[in-house]
Amino acid sequence: MSEIAIGVLALQGDFEEHIQMLARLGVATREVRKPEELRGLDGLIIPGGESTSMGLVAECWGLVEPLRAWVHAGRPAWGTCAGLILLADRAVGQKRGGQPLIGGLDVTVNRNYFGRQTDSFETMLSAPALGAEPIPAVFIRAPAIVELGADVEPLASLVGKTGEPIYVAVRQGAILATAFHPELTDDDRWHRYFLSMVGEVGD
Ligand code: GLN
After folding, report:
1. Average pLDDT, the chain
2. Choice among 16, 50, 133, 183 that is catalytic
3. Atom of ligand 1 nearest to the CA of 47
4. Which of 141, 190, 195, 185 minimizes the C-alpha distance to 170?
5. Which domains are present in the chain?
6. 160, 180, 161: which is closest to 169 by C-alpha?
7. In sequence order, what are the residues at sequence separation of 6 or more whose Cβ sits closer than 8 angstroms to the Cβ of residue 101?
8. Alpha carbon 144 to its chain's center
9. Which residues' Cβ are closer than 6 Å to ligand 1?
10. Kind and range of the H or E element at 17?
11. 102-141: pLDDT as tens digits
């Protein structure tokens, strides 16, 4: 694999698991906590965790604007779970007063669509862009995308509580977003998909 470096936002949440998965794929990573640590990266992962805390810490550390600039410049970014929430242009079910969003992804996300901590589950998803084999997905207090903008490509969906379609993996240009946690499974296809978006086919 040629030299690429992927940044993993390391303010809070399960950034370590993403780093381990990328290490397994032979990809160099950098933990990002300061604006200058974004410099020179080829892609950025915003992990799962708690989007309100992550947003507040990002605000405290002066990272919200640099992250917005990164994403809005069309550089590859992947948000998983809380990361998806932060990348969404619109969120419902937010805490009072809202939370800072990075935005860039033209979707409406329902922040706790799948409920609270106890409402975590694992399922097999069909994601044709990743191959015919269904892919395991771990949902933890997971969000769901309830509205897609015109330029957003759905990659995986589920049937919602009232029979409506909800989207749990989407792509818009250089932005990938998944409502679940691929870094908590042994299946590295989402990581390889993101690397292929970064310009590196991770075979
Ligand atoms: N629903 C959580 C939030 O609002 C995200 C949960 C997760 O990342 N596992 O941040």
Report:
1. 93
2. 183
3. 8
4. 190
5. 5-202 (3.40.50.880)
6. 180
7. 55, 85, 86, 87, 88, 89, 91
8. 12
9. 48-51, 81-82, 85, 111-112, 140-141, 143
10. helix 15-24
11. 999 999 999 999 887 668 999 999 999 999 999 999 999 9
Residues in the chain: 203
Name the pLDDT band for 95 (thresholds 50, 70, 90).
low
As a whole number of Å, the CA-based R_g of the chain is 15
In order, the DSSP letters of 96-108 are TT-------EEEE
Cα(174)–Cα(75) distance, integer angstroms: 6
Question: pLDDT exceeding 90 applies to what percent of the chain?
Answer: 87
Which amino acid is it at 18?
Answer: H
What's this model's pTM, rounded to 2 decimal places?
Answer: 0.94
- Nearest-atom number in ligand 1 for the CA of 140 is 9
Q: How many alpha carbons fall within 13 Å on the CB side of residue 158?
A: 21
**Contact assessment for residue 108 and residue 146, using Cβ atoms and an 8 Å cutoff:** yes
- How far apart are the C-alpha atoms of 45 and 4, rounded to whole Å? 14
Reduced DSSP (H G I as helix, E B as strand, rest coil) percent helix, strand, coil of the chain, to 5: 25, 30, 40
